[in-house]
User: Fold this.
Amino acid sequence: MYTLYINMNNAYKLYQVYCIEEGIFVKTHSFTDPTECPNDHPDKTIDTNQTTIIHYRPIISNTSQTLSPKKETMSSQNYQDLQCDFYFNKLIMDRITNVKVIGYINNKATSYDVRTFDVTHNTEIISDTLTNASKEVNDLGYIETSPTEDALIEFHVKVTGSGGKATIENIMVYYK
Assistant:
């Protein structure tokens, strides 16, 4: 058994800041405490006394990371976010090399599509159409177009077949 110690100072954090000009709270992601409002307006001053951290996403230096979706079962015929984001950090990773998913479909579905999507640059990284009805590890393949700078990565699924459902239990992201 191994114990993993995570330094939360090396974490990608979701902050809530108060933008003075607009008089509203705004969410922003950063490794460091924000110093200005992320919204596009002339006065970017924030009230630092009202800045709070909402969520930590630790950055783990390794060669792979396993993610567990918050939404496991999907039934939409349009891509839906599995809500298990991955932060690609160029400081500790050179490139994403491969993605594998543990998943399956029910008997009403004919297939399901899984895609890895770079939200920061609005780019699909890799996708595949899968047809397995029993739980399997599905290799989406070698990734040719990994991000070249920091990026927020999402994982999406859509199902083919009326009444069909796809279940994704885990996603493994490999990088070097």
Q: What stands out?
A: Residues 97 and 175 are 5 Å apart (CA to CA). The two ends are 24 Å apart (CA to CA). The chain has no helices and 13 strands. Confidence is low (pLDDT under 50) at residues 1-8.
